[in-house]
Amino acid sequence: MNMTEPVIVHDHKTEIENPVLCEISEGIATLTLNRPAKLNAINYRMADTLLSHLDAFEVDDSVKVIILTGAGERAFSAGGDIAEFSQSVRAGPEEAVRDFVHRGQAMTSRMEAFGKPIIAAVNGLAFGGGCEITESVHLSIASQRAIFAKPEINLGMPPTFGGTQRLPRLAGRKRALEWLLTGDTFTPGQALEMGLINAIVPHDKLMAAARDLARRIMRHSPDAARSIITAVTRGLNMTIGEGLQTESEQFARLVPTRSLAEKLNTWIERKAI
Fold first, then answer.
1. pLDDT at 7 > cutoff 70
2. Which residues are catalytic, by number?
3. pLDDT of residue 270
4. Which of these CATH numbers, 1.20.81, 1.20.1070, 3.40.50, 1.10.12, describes 222-272?
5. Averaged over 136-155, what is the pLDDT?
6. CATH of 12-218 given 2.40.30.260, 1.25.40.10, 3.90.226.10, 3.90.930.1
7. What DSSP letter does each residue of the chain carry, written as one string?
């Protein structure tokens, strides 16, 4: 879908028919979680739709950067759809893990390792799975109205979309455990200090700030961006020696490319003047 302006309709029928809105403009794909009446809670259909969009963007050369945000004025996402996943829980561990946990982990892992930069524009509350999406994407900008929480413990369960693994890697073990074990909310300022987000902006400037960040990234080679994302994502789970090998491999993949040759030649020619 190509348009110059996003068309976002928030009626209940649209939520049922289209849980994720998509707008592509100037090389930027904006995905909007579209269940505002449910605070953009992530049901199975929304998770599957997000994955389908990412599959399409992966092979669409016109899409350079993805921005992910929430519909409405209240929420980025309140997390998993409790009413839906509780049915899987009642069916037993095998079904609950297959339908709920594996689906959510597949979604956040796909975002984390995706070869094109994904920016979360956190426009309101980001609880549970909404916070886990923020943890998993490459970059995050928050509105001053944003609020974060890891409230799964209030339901008698741990986070299941990767929150027990990614938040400690971002914030450190002790700070992460405070939020995981209390379920308390935390502010954008606290999220920024612990490394969960990159910036805080006025609410009415959020999407402009996200698009500005996207454009700053798009000035550069998409192949180089992909290599950086791959090296960083893989390296976080490796020893430093293994990570350096991954870095070397990613560089070697770019050596034969026209993009690298052209940029090196341009730099050398400019210095020669």
1. no
2. 132, 152
3. 85
4. 1.10.12
5. 98
6. 3.90.226.10
7. -B-SS------HHHHHH-SEEEEEETTEEEEEE--GGGTT-B-HHHHHHHHHHHHHHHT-TT--EEEEEESSSSEEE--B-HHHHHHHHHH-HHHHIIIIIHHHHHHHHHHHH-SS-EEEEE-SEEETHHHHHHHHSSEEEEETT-EEE-GGGGGTS---SSHHHHHHHHH-HHHHHHHHHH--EE-HHHHHHTTS-SEEE-GGGHHHHHHHHHHHHHTS-HHHHHHHHHHHHHHTTS-HHHHHHHHHHHHHHHTT-HHHHHHHHHHHHHHH-
